[in-house]
Amino acid sequence: MLSSSKTSVLSTQRLEALFEEDLFTAALDEMSVNIPFLYELLNKLVGDTGCKRASKAMIYAMILNSRNRRVSALQKCMTVLAVKCHADNKLLSRLNRIHITM
Question: Does pTM top 0.90 for this prediction?
Fold first, then answer.
């Protein structure tokens, strides 16, 4: 995925950055540069309009998070949303297992 000398936009530790930056667009841009094959494959399979872009960014985030737990910016956002919407522990546990939340 990423070489050891590169850091991902999804590895941000600043809480403010999660709400100020467009992480979905930044993740897609990063994927198109670092893994063009996956980017093109997801474009063909999923498409490139509306919420499909967010789906592709989440897939990329899930892959990176499964390889490195520090790359978790989108997972942090999803966890905040799930807790804010009163998700129970069972749902949070399931989402955590598949690298959607923390």
Answer: no
